Structure formats: structure tokens, C-alpha cells
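User: Can you predict the 3D structure of Sulfurtransferase TusA family protein? Sequence below.
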Amino acid sequence: MNITKLLDAKGLACPMPIVKTKKAINDLESGQILEIHTTDKGAKNDLAAWAKSGGHELLKYEEEKDILKFWIKKG
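Assistant: Sure. Here are the predicted C-alpha cells for Sulfurtransferase TusA family protein:
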């Protein structure tokens, strides 16, 4: 996977991971991929719903220790 940008949102509580993700994805071109790292457990549902509602694609999600990692392709 060719990552365009990495967003470190670890330690931020809701709604900040979504706010930061929205800002970061606005800087990308359509088709580029944003990788997000967060420790907010609520982000799992929030980011999936946000990506879908914004016309973006959640490509992958994984959990590594206490860090949730997401890969979102800009629509």
C-alpha cells in the first residue's frame, strides 16, 4: 500500500481524531491514502462511519497493542 500521509492522533480523545483526519484528508488528492494511528477506542466506529459518509474508502483497520491503525483512501 502506498501511503501518502501519516496522521498521529495518539492520545487524543473524541472528537479530535475525526477533526484531525478531516483536516489531513483535505490536503490529499483523490485516490491518495491516509494512515491514521489513534488510541481512542471510539475511533473504530467513528472513522468507519465518517469515511463512508464522506465518500472515502476504509481500506484496512488493525489493532496493534493499544494503537488502532486505519488506512483511508480519499474519494
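The chain has two helices and four strands. The chain has one domain: 5-73.
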